[in-house]
Amino acid sequence: MSETTMTSAAPESHTAPDRTIRVSAVVMRDDAGRVLNVRKRGTTSFMLPGGKHELDEAPIDTAVREFEEELGIDLDRDRLRSLGVFRAVAANEPGHVVEATVFEHPLVPEAAAATPRAEIAALEWIDPLAPRDDIAPLNTDYVFPALLSNE
C-alpha cells in the first residue's frame, strides 16, 4: 500500500480525521491448512475473526474476546502467538485503513462445529492458496502470504 502526502492550506491546528481502524484478529487453521474466516452481516468480504479494541484493552485480550463473541469459542490466551501487525485497505469501510494485530491459535475441536454468532452472517474455512475475490485485502495481501512463508 502506498501512502500519499497531501498539503493543505488549512491552519496547522486542523487535523484530518483518523481513517485507521485498529483491530485484533485470529488465524486458526484446520488440518488441511485452511484458515477460518467470517463474513459480517451486510458485507461481501470474508475476513479473520476479530474486531475493534475496547478502551484500554490489550490486543491479545481483544482477540480472545472477539473470537468468543463471534464464534462461541474460548481461546487459551497462552496459546496465542503473534503473527504481526498489518495495515491494509479496509474491506468493508471505504476510505479507511485497517491496522490489525494478528495472532495464531492452534486448532481447537470446537472450531469444526462453530456457528456464526453476534454480527457474523457466515463462516468458512478458506484455502490461502485459492484465488478468490471475496476475501479482505488484509488476508490476501498480508496475512495469507505471511502464513505461507512460515510453512
Number of helices: 2
What is the total tally of β strands?
6
State the distance separating the first and last CA atoms.
25 Å
Oligomer: single chain
- By helix and strand content, what is the structural category? alpha+beta
Strand content: 25-35%
**Overall average residue pLDDT:** 88
Q: What is the helix/strand order?
A: EEEHEEEH
* Proportion of residues in helical segments: 10-25%
Major sheet characteristics: 4 strands, mixed
| Rg | 16 Å
Taking strands numbered 1, 2, ... along the chain, how are they ordered across the largest sheet?
3-1-5-4
Please describe what this structure looks like.
17% of the residues lie in helices and 27% in strands. Strands 3-1-5-4 form a four-stranded mixed β-sheet, with helices on both faces. Strands 2-6 form a two-stranded antiparallel ribbon. A hairpin with a 7-residue loop joins strand 4 and strand 5. The longest helix has 13 residues.
Give structural attributes.
single chain; 151 residues; alpha+beta; two-stranded antiparallel ribbon; globular
Brief synopsis:
With 151 residues, the chain is α+β, with helices and mostly antiparallel strands. Helices cover 17% and strands 27% of the residues. Mean pLDDT is 88; it is low at 1-14.
How are the secondary structure elements laid out?
Elements: E1 20-27, E2 35-40, E3 50-52, H1 59-71, E4 81-89, E5 97-104, E6 120-126, H2 137-149
Parallel strand pairs: 1-5
Antiparallel strand pairs: 1-3, 2-6, 4-5
